[in-house]
């Protein structure tokens, strides 16, 4: 399956769409996204351009870098894409932000763009948030526990 926008039937102006997706639809390994990925699209269409503001919300299931226990990591990411209608004599162009489309196209597939922004949302350091008292919100272990654990190994 793919996440496609039917631009052939869109009138000029602002449109809002809410979608729900998952790891399988985006071609990601199963289990990386917990339950569903919520996608909110705000589109502004003119006769030769489509501006998309996209908001992604969901939860990752990640292994903690310290204790290796799986924990939930909520994320929210906003990004923008611009699709510009390609003139007949113009070459097709494509970059991370501005893309071209043929005036004969009826749909635009944004699956790959969403997959890339989900992957960019994965934190490099997989550590749950610490409470004010210094304990992990997920496993309950303290910073002192890990420091003593490392000292024992030396």
Blueprint (SSEs and pairs):
Elements: E1 4-6, E2 13-21, H1 23-26, E3 33-45, E4 49-63, E5 70-85, E6 98-101, E7 107-109, H2 111-121, H3 143-153
Proportion in helices: 10-25%
Q: Please mark out the parts with pLDDT under 50 across 5 or more consecutive residues, or reply none.
A: none
Order of helices and strands: EEHEEEEEHH
User: Which outline best applies?
Assistant: elongated
Strand order of the largest sheet: 2-3-4-5-6
Count all strands and give the number: 7
Largest sheet: 5 strands, mixed
Strand residue content: 35-45%
Number of domains: 1
Class by alpha and beta content = alpha+beta
The mean pLDDT is 79
Gyration radius, to the nearest Å?
Answer: 21 Å
Please report the number of helical segments: 3
Considering the chains and any ligands shown, give keywords for the structure.
elongated, 154 residues, two-stranded antiparallel sheet, alpha+beta, 7 strands, 3 helices
Question: What does this molecule look like?
Answer:
The protein has 154 residues and is of the alpha+beta class. The protein has one domain. Helix content is 17%, strand content 41%. The chain has three helices and seven strands. The protein has helices at 23-26, 111-121, 143-153; strands spanning 4-6, 13-21, 33-45, 49-63, 70-85, 98-101, 107-109. The strands form two sheets. It has a five-stranded mixed sheet. A two-stranded antiparallel ribbon has the order 1-7. Strand 3 (33-45) and strand 4 (49-63) form a beta hairpin. It starts with a strand and ends with a helix. The model has no long low-confidence stretch (mean pLDDT 79).
